[in-house]
UniProtKB/TrEMBL annotation:
Residues 12-439 form the FAD-dependent oxidoreductase 2 FAD-binding domain. This is FAD-dependent tricarballylate dehydrogenase TcuA. SUPFAM superfamilies: FAD/NAD(P)-binding domain, Succinate dehydrogenase/fumarate reductase flavoprotein, catalytic domain. PANTHER family: FAD-DEPENDENT OXIDOREDUCTASE 2 FAD BINDING DOMAIN-CONTAINING PROTEIN (PTHR43400:SF7), FUMARATE REDUCTASE (PTHR43400). It comes from Oricola cellulosilytica. GO terms for molecular function: oxidoreductase activity. Keywords: FAD, Flavoprotein, Oxidoreductase. The gene is tcuA. Its cofactor is FAD.
């Protein structure tokens, strides 16, 4: 090990990470009177972790709230969560996140975040999700401006690799910066450094060789180093390493950092086939914000971890435009050739699907319409219209991992523990503890809810401990 240089800073609260959860924690702790230092692994232009790629925040409200319309009650929100997780959640922590989201909306506005009405083509999210004006990058920048105004210290390109645990507390934290190893001794520590999805070798240990074909939608800096270090020292874990927020994204996306724009919203109006030109799941199972996150896992289970979306011209304007234009062809056979699919097999699959479509007069693109197939497997239970109007369009699909669910187990105060009891000065927030609530599946905008709520709790508790 290289020589360890002592960092002269000795903040009350050290926040590890630089995204939404970390910033929510840092601002809250600073406003409570604590001195706060953030250590962010990324360079300044890439600060913010996955939060800079986000679009919206899922929020409970009993009546109209800001840009949100109508009401979205605690019980409805919780039932939506149960649907996507299959009940694999901690009900106490889940309801805490949900109940706290309404007040968090106001807190976010008070700290520089601006919202806008939901975008067209987002399938009725205006009631449940508040969209960030300028996207996640604007949210991150607003929080950094607020933090700077409060006197929060930020160290960039600081890669934490070890927290020294002794007798139920963290004694010191080691990080590297500029080729040197530095040691800092805070009174309290908040871990908000994300999952391990940036480490493809760790993904492969969990998933097997298929993970080598996954794309990582977010930051390459979330490599799980702090998570692994704490788990090795006996800090309690939660979640399954094979569970993650994984969506089907454009197969042309980059390996890392493609972000939200690589997502494809066309699946409900399509058929999806694998490399053998076979359909493998019901494309119309549920409205897209509730079910889109299952498609990453579905594609991961297909040969070569790839799928293909096929639509026709009448569906092209029904979903949010893609960042890369779709592949266009005048015939199904020509489209098959563009993707290297067996043309005769794709024609047979589409003919069988078309024949199974019935009356489409009730078709409604933004709600469950019951326009279903009959006599084909798998069925399509909504939005089932024949694919028969040229030109035809298609996209390749790959599994895009956003964040992993293996993380640090926390209680209602966001505090970490070992089998011997609480770690007195260690808290966690955001993706690094989201597996406490998300056992599987995902609900659009809920990651930002978890990060904001538990970041604020962790900041409050850490500041109180430090004082």
């Amino acid at each position: 090990m290289s020589k360890v240089h002592s960092d002269p800073r000795s903040p009350d609260v050290l926040v590890i990470g630089g995204g939404n959860a970390a910033l929510s924690a840092a601002i809250t702790a600073r406003e409570a009177g604590a001195s706060v230092t953030i250590v962010e692994a990324a360079p300044k232009p890439y600060r913010g972790g996955n939060s800079r790629h986000t679009r919206n925040f899922r929020c409970m409200h009993d009546g109209p709230l800001g840009v949100l319309t109508g009401e979205y009650t605690e019980d409805e929100y919780y039932q939506d969560l149960l649907k996507v997780t299959g009940g694999n959640t901690d009900p106490v922590l889940a309801r805490l996140a949900i109940r706290s989201s309404e007040e968090s909306y106001r807190w976010m506005e008070a700290h520089g975040v601006r919202f806008q009405p939901s975008l067209s083509g987002t399938l009725s999210l205006g009631r449940t999700n508040a969209f960030f004006l300028g996207g996640g990058k604007s949210l991150v920048n607003a929080y950094y401006r607020t933090a700077a105004g409060l006197g929060v210290d930020v160290i960039y390109e600081a890669k934490v690799f070890h927290l020294e645990l002794k007798e139920h507390r963290v004694d010191w934290v080691d990080y590297t910066q500029g080729g040197e190893t530095r040691r800092i001794t805070p009174k309290a520590v908040i871990v908000a450094s994300g999952g391990f999805q940036g480490d493809t070798e760790w993904l492969a240990r969990a998933w097997g060789p298929a993970a080598q074909n996954f794309l990582i939608r977010g930051t390459p800096y979330n490599r799980g180093v702090v998570l692994a270090d704490l788990l090795e020292q006996g800090v309690r874990s939660v979640g399954d390493p094979t569970q993650c927020h994984a969506v089907a994204i454009d197969g042309r996306a980059p390996k890392f950092d493609g972000g939200i724009v690589t997502r494809l919203d066309c699946v409900p109006f399509s058929i999806v086939v694998n490399k053998n030109a076979e359909r493998f799941y019901d494309e119309g199972e549920e409205v897209w914000p509730k079910r889109y996150a299952i498609w990453g896992r579905l594609v991961a289970a297909q040969p070569d971890q790839v799928g293909y979306v096929i639509i026709d011209s009448k569906s092209l304007e029904l979903f949010m435009p893609s960042v890369f234009p779709p592949i266009k062809a005048d015939s199904i056979e020509e489209l098959a050739g563009e993707f290297g699919l067996p043309a005769d097999k794709l024609r047979k699959t589409i003919d069988a699907f078309n024949a199974a479509c019935g009356d489409t007069s009730a078709f409604h693109p933004t709600e469950l319409d019951g326009v279903a197939t009959s006599g084909v497997a798998p069925p399509k239970t909504n939005w089932a219209r024949p694919i028969n109007e040229p030109p035809f369009y298609g996209y390749s699909l790959r599994t895009g991992v956003t964040f992993t669910y293996l993380g640090l187990k926390v209680d209602e105060l966001a505090q970490c523990s070992t089998d011997a009891g609480s770690v007195r000065n260690l808290w966690a927030a955001g993706e690094t503890m989201a597996g406490s609530i998300l056992g599987q599946g995902y609900l659009a905008g809920f990651g930002m809810t978890i990060g904001t709520v538990f970041g604020r709790i962790a900041g409050r508790e850490a500041a109180a401990y430090a004082s």
